[in-house]
Amino acid sequence: MTLQNLKYSVLDLAYIAQGNTIKQTLNNSLDLARYVEKLGYTRFWLAEHHNMVSIASSATSVLIGYIAEGTNTIRVGSGGVMLPNHSSLIIAEQFGTLESLYPGRIDLGVGRAPGTDGYTAMALGRNPQIINEQFPRQISELHTYFSEENKNGQVRAIPGEGLNIPVYILGSSTDSAWLAAELGLPYAFAGHFAPDQMGMAFKIYRENYKPSDRFPEPYIIAATNIIAADTDEEAEYLSTTLYQAFVNLVRNDRKPAQPPVEDMDTIWSPMEAMQVRRMLSLSIIGSKETVQKKLNDFLEVYQIDELMAVTNVYDHKTRLRSYEILKEVITG
Question: What is the pTM of this model?
């Protein structure tokens, strides 16, 4: 895989910057989607998270509709819906509705994690004892609800039935790599916060892939943090917003996205710095030239089909510029 053949997309968590309202945050997500659509990005995914004051994408299906309505060609979807948080039928109906409104543009990425803390997972009605059996069963249920053959079933997804909605399996460890390979579905890995097992997960997925009618070949998407700026120094400065977000995660100190700072050593301890740098070890941060070199190295190691960039910076216009630079790197 080379840069010229690489598909490039966006994963947006609708980060709430300090001082911004929820409405402003969601408007910024739409503005970003419109901007990257003009730049030729393939898809714009939104991630389900709950009980986080820095993330506004909890009602993922609703937000997908908002983004799809405000754009024209870019694919819009979930990266992902945390399927055990929901009834399979409800998700089939929601995404069936979205696909009916925006035909040929909706993706359904699904994961098994809660996207939140333990207490909130309980509030969502999850049963952790059955998750490993529930998740693959729910994927099978989704395919049944989307099939034309289910028109004679006792339970039908209307809208949803007979619609061509691609399902993607998400993972942050090796577990879902086995499942995606077994089911013959595309696989997306959360390298933006859990990089440790990404290489092994891709190896498992490729070596065990069973071709399906819709996806005869394995297809790999890697999500990673990318912060591009006009200089390395500016990019490193902007990245301190991302570092602070992960320090807060380590401390369980929930707050909106913070402005960048000149010196992270005034904020994190050496142990926290080590933890954060490990979680962000695959992040690509720098000028156009630096991003190009790091991205080429990344592709040489992981041989992905599609890059899904996560850009958590404080200023919206700066985020737009980062995605513009990334597009220039990939397309030349």
Answer: 0.96
pLDDT, tens digit (0-9, with 9 covering 90-100), for 208-231: 999 999 999 999 999 999 999 999
How many CB atoms neighbour CB 66 within 10 A?
Answer: 17
End-to-end CA distance of the chain: 15
Q: What is the CA radius of gyration of the chain?
A: 19
- Chain-centroid distance of CA 213 in Å reads 25
Q: How far is CA 9 from the centre of its chain?
A: 9
| Lookup: tokens for 23 | 């409405």
- Residues 6 or more apart from 34 whose CB is under 8 A from it? 70, 71
Per the CB < 8 A criterion, the answer to whether 67 and 29 are in contact is yes
| CATH code: domain of residue 83 | 3.20.20.30
Number of folded domains that form the chain: 1
Q: Tokens in use for 104?
A: 């040929």
Pairing of β 284-286 and β 306-310: unpaired
Domain that holds residue 153: 3-331
pLDDT tens for each residue of 2-41:
888 999 999 999 999 999 999 999 999 999 999 999 999 9
- Beta strands at 167-171 and 220-228: parallel, antiparallel or unpaired: unpaired
